[in-house]
Design goal:
With 200 residues, the chain is an alpha/beta fold. The chain is 46% helix and 12% strand. It contains seven helices and five strands, in the order βαβαβαββαααα. A five-stranded mixed beta sheet has the order 2-1-3-4-5, sandwiched between helices. The radius of gyration is 28 Å and the shape is elongated. It comes from Igneacidithiobacillus copahuensis.
C-alpha cells in the first residue's frame, strides 16, 4: 500500500508585536497585524534595548521558508538599525519574507531590498563613526598620560591608608569600605587580604 505524500504547509503570515512596558496597549498593533492577514501573532512586553525578548525568539523559530514575518513598524523588531539589518538578513537567508506595515516595506520586493541595502550601509556608517570616536578618545587620553578604560577607584595613597587601617583588629572592613565609598569587593581587589596586627 502506497502512502499518500503529505501536503506541504502553505506559507503563513506571522506577526510580531511589542510594547515597551506592561502599561502600554498592544491593541493597535494587534488589529493592524490581523487586518494584514496574520493568523498567529507573537506579543511581547519588553524594552527595545532589552536583549532578552523570548517571544521574538519563539517567533523566529516558528517561521519556515516561504513564510512572512510582519510587524506594525520597523522599531518594533530591531533594538537598533544594526539589529534590524541583522534580523532581516537572517530571515532572507532562510527564505523568509519580511514586511513592515507602517513604512510599507516588503523586504522581498525590489524596493524593499534597496531599502535594506541602504539600511545596511547606514549601519556600517554608524559602526565606523563609533569606532572612530572611540579611537580618537583613547588617543586623546593617551596624549594626556592616561590609558584607556575606567580610572581606578583608589589611588596609591588611599591603598596605603586602607592597608594601615586594616592592620588594626578593631577596624571592620565594611566600615573602611563605606569611608572610601567603595564596595568590599573593590576594596579587596585593590588592597588584597590584610592580616590585622594583634598585640601580644
Amino acid at each position: 500500500m502506497n502512502a499518500t505524500p503529505a501536503t506541504p504547509a502553505s506559507p503563513s503570515r506571522i506577526g510580531y508585536a511589542r510594547v515597551s512596558t506592561d502599561d502600554q496597549n498592544l491593541d493597535l498593533q494587534r488589529d493592524a497585524l490581523k487586518a494584514s492577514g496574520c493568523a498567529t501573532i507573537y506579543e511581547e512586553h519588553a524594552s527595545g534595548k532589552n536583549t532578552e525578548r523570548p517571544e521574538l525568539s519563539h517567533c523566529l523559530k516558528a517561521l519556515r521558508a516561504g513564510d512572512t514575518l510582519v510587524v506594525w513598524r520597523l522599531d518594533r523588531l530591531g533594538r537598533s538599525l544594526q539589529d534590524l539589518v541583522r534580523i532581516v538578513g537572517e530571515l532572507e537567508s532562510r527564505g523568509i519574507g519580511f514586511e513592515s506595515l507602517t513604512e510599507r516595506i516588503e523586504a522581498s520586493s525590489t524596493t524593499g531590498k534597496l531599502v535594506f541595502h541602504l539600511f545596511a550601509a547606514l549601519a556600517e556608517f554608524e559602526r565606523n563613526l563609533i569606532r572612530e570616536r572611540t579611537f580618537a578618545g583613547l588617543k586623546a587620553a593617551r596624549a594626556r598620560g592616561r590609558k584607556g578604560g575606567r580610572p581606578p577607584k583608589l589611588d596609591a595613597r588611599q591603598v596605603r591608608e586602607i592597608r594601615a587601617l586594616l592592620k588594626d583588629p578593631h577596624v571592620r572592613v565594611i566600615d573602611v569600605a563605606k569611608r572610601y565609598k567603595i564596595s568590599r569587593a573593590t576594596l579587596y581587589k585593590h588592597v588584597g587580604s590584610v592580616v590585622p596586627v594583634r598585640e601580644g
